[in-house]
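Duplicate of #3305? Posting structure anyway:
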């Protein structure tokens, strides 16, 4: 891994250090560019077409497959959530620990 290339993707690191990136960590340059491009597309094409919905489903399945390959498992073993906290809460709820306090 080329750490200089990773740091180059995170321009904010030129002036700040992130010691906790679990919530609002530094945003990579390519993520910001993809977000702008996606937002522009939604603005111009709308957000309610069947084609867009099917594309999102296909993207989700590709992502699950790529993550599964990295982890050496099957795609159906991968759950995607909207945030790390959501994922942790799903796992903790699934453990059935009950009330802790």
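Output from current build:
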């Amino acid at each position: 891994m080329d750490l200089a290339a990773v740091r180059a993707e995170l321009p904010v690191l030129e002036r700040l250090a992130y010691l906790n990136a679990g919530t609002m960590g530094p945003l990579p340059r390519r993520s910001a560019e993809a977000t702008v491009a996606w937002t522009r597309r939604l603005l111009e094409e709308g957000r309610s077409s069947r084609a867009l919905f099917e594309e999102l489903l296909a993207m989700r399945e590709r992502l699950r497959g790529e993550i599964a390959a990295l982890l050496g498992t099957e795609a159906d073993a991968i759950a995607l959530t909207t945030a790390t906290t959501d994922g942790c809460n799903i796992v903790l709820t699934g453990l059935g620990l009950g009330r802790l306090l």
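Confirmed duplicate; merging threads. Helices lie at 3-8, 29-45, 50-71, 84-95. Residues 48-101 form one domain.
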